[in-house]
Amino acid sequence: MKSMASMSTNARPIAYRWWALIALALAQFLVVLDASIVNIALPSMGAELHLDTNTLSWVITAYVLPFGGLLLLGGRLSDRFGHRRLFIAGVAGFAAASAAAGLANTGAWLLSARAVQGASAALLAPAALALVTKLFADPRDRAKALGIWGAVAGVGSAAGVLLGGVLTSSFGWPSVFYVNVPVALLVIVASLLLIAKDKPGANESLDMPGAAAVTAGIVALVAALSEVERFGWTSPLTLVLAGAAVVLLAGFVLIERRVTNPLMPLSIFRNKSVLGGNLAMFLIGGATTALFFALSVYMQQVLHYDAMKAGLTQLPLAGALVLIAGAEPALIKKLGTRLSLAFSLILFAAGLIWLSLAPSNASFALHLLGPSIVIGIGVGGAFVSGTELAVHGVADSEAGLASGLVNTSQQIGGAIGLAVLATLSSTRTRSLLDKGISEPQALTGGFAWVFLGAAAFAVIGAIVVLAVVRNSGSRNGIDQSITRKEKGVRS
């Protein structure tokens, strides 16, 4: 008879894995939430810390950049040193940085704390998703778990605006950071109790040159796009930053081809599901980050909603997102992941186009409610099916890599999408003001370009998925491989 201790150790990842999923998903919720929860609080931060509009945009970017730039390294570190260990370390760092951000009394302090938050998120996010894929080896259970995971990511983006409004109005802007601390501590305790230790990977050297090249390249690219708004496309600073980004990212590819243990083996993209899923998540990240930033500013600066009202108006979007996320696994089973993702992206684009028609004196019920619901349905379906597609068919030894890659795609897409679409918005607004258009109408015209640009991202994503991920004897090729796995288990 096995000892009770042995039974407890073996049962923990099986009997309690759904409870463990809640803890892991809650950490992922915090990571995604923190990219959007500060949007509503930005005007209050700017007034108290004396930050201009350009600096305020960096409150978002300072978090997203290290998050996206270090995710691949974070995934590799978790494969090397153990997923649970890196997950807990990342959550602890995230909690400490959140507390520091809430205490900030200068812009430099706030931006530094946000950067540490992003770096900590880069540790915990890939480790968390890798733990999910390991805990749920059965294809059917994994589909359900990834459905929940994708839903959490979508809900976090939408709920950030809602919670940001409620917290800022009730307790002030520091509360949007302080709220992370008790939740993170709860996640750490739950992880220690519910998730068994996993063995570290092989003692291989880490690709630090590759990590440095890709991180610096991404930072230079986003910085170049951000400077376009102030200095233009042909300014020396913009051109130097863009040139540095090209050189660094090209160098990263060369490094990955030559090193023995690459940070990101390029062979992973031979898996068309991984390739298509990551391209889609890149575009989804760009569209959603720009959407929630522009929508929150539009509601407060043009429609003159206070923080509470702006947050509460996101309830229909968040509610639609939650409902469709619960139904998405059934839709995936019927249509396949490929078609489900493409359909969700087209629906997302339709809602964004509808939203772009809202005037400067928009009524919520007449102009915003309908588009919000359609957007929520599209975003919810896109996050669930996009996540499932991006991690399909990856070996356990590269689970951290694949998890880091899909998060990287989403976060870097968000940073680049926000930089590009914010620049287009400012250009459009200035053009309308120069023509004598009133400020509210000019701002509305600029935000309309953000929504239309985000819609273009979503449409391109749908086209990419349909073109890259091919059918293979079933609705999407993925369902067939799952069926083969199940047959192998039964035999």
From TrEMBL:
SUPFAM superfamilies: MFS general substrate transporter. Its main location: membrane. Keywords: Cell membrane, Membrane, Transmembrane, Transmembrane helix, Transport. It comes from the Bacteria. It is a multi-pass membrane protein. This is DHA2 family efflux MFS transporter permease subunit. Residues 20-473 form the Major facilitator superfamily (MFS) profile domain. It is found in: Cell membrane. InterPro entries: EmrB-like (IPR004638), MFS (IPR011701), MFS_dom (IPR020846), MFS_trans_sf (IPR036259). PANTHER family: BLR6921 PROTEIN (PTHR42718:SF46), MAJOR FACILITATOR SUPERFAMILY MULTIDRUG TRANSPORTER MFSC (PTHR42718). NCBIfam families: efflux_EmrB. The keyword Nucleotidyltransferase does not apply. It comes from Cohnella soli.
